[in-house]
């Protein structure tokens, strides 16, 4: 049996983490709008929060902010982006109830290693 399999299993056990969402904090709508503008102008998929988009309702600045900053964060976190937006947002392991179907959390940390373990195990 390869040494890779036990190593992967150990790493998988200790690196598990829940999906991470980037969510806007309750607060000043102008601050939240700036976060939306930044996220949408820098790579977030904001078509969902347009009037014909799947995540337009509820039509609130807070809901739209959650969708925009989370989209940005999911796309850019791997290249060093943070979930702060000048203090307007913070990471969460739980999506908000109002936009949960519109938000995608980051992948589990151990997914790649777990798949590698399965491949290795199937070759034993």
Automatic annotation (TrEMBL):
<keyword id="KW-0732">Signal</keyword>
<protein>
    <submittedName>
        <fullName>PDCB4</fullName>
    </submittedName>
</protein>
<dbReference type="Pfam" id="PF07983">
    <property type="entry name" value="X8"/>
</dbReference>
<dbReference type="GO" id="GO:0098552">
    <property type="term" value="C:side of membrane"/>
</dbReference>
<dbReference type="InterPro" id="IPR044788">
    <property type="entry name" value="X8_dom_prot"/>
</dbReference>
<keyword id="KW-0336">GPI-anchor</keyword>
<keyword id="KW-0449">Lipoprotein</keyword>
<feature type="signal peptide">
    <location>
        <begin position="1"/>
        <end position="19"/>
    </location>
</feature>
<dbReference type="GO" id="GO:0005886">
    <property type="term" value="C:plasma membrane"/>
</dbReference>
<keyword id="KW-0472">Membrane</keyword>
<keyword id="KW-1003">Cell membrane</keyword>
<keyword id="KW-0325">Glycoprotein</keyword>
<dbReference type="GO" id="GO:0009506">
    <property type="term" value="C:plasmodesma"/>
</dbReference>
<feature type="domain" description="X8">
    <location>
        <begin position="20"/>
        <end position="104"/>
    </location>
</feature>
<dbReference type="InterPro" id="IPR012946">
    <property type="entry name" value="X8"/>
</dbReference>
<keyword id="KW-1015">Disulfide bond</keyword>
């Amino acid at each position: 049996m390869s040494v890779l399999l036990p190593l992967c299993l150990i790493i998988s056990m200790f690196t598990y983490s829940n999906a991470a969402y980037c969510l806007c904090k309750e607060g000043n709508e102008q601050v939240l709008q700036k976060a939306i503008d930044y996220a949408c102008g820098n790579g977030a998929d904001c078509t969902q929060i347009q009037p014909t988009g799947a995540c337009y309702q509820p039509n609130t600045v807070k809901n739209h902010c959650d969708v925009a900053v989370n989209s940005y964060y999911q796309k850019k976190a791997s290249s060093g982006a943070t979930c702060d937006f000048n203090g307007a947002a913070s990471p969460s392991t739980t999506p908000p109830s109002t936009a949960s179907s519109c938000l995608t959390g980051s992948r589990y940390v151990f997914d790649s290693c777990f798949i590698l373990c399965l491949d290795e195990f199937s070759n034993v």
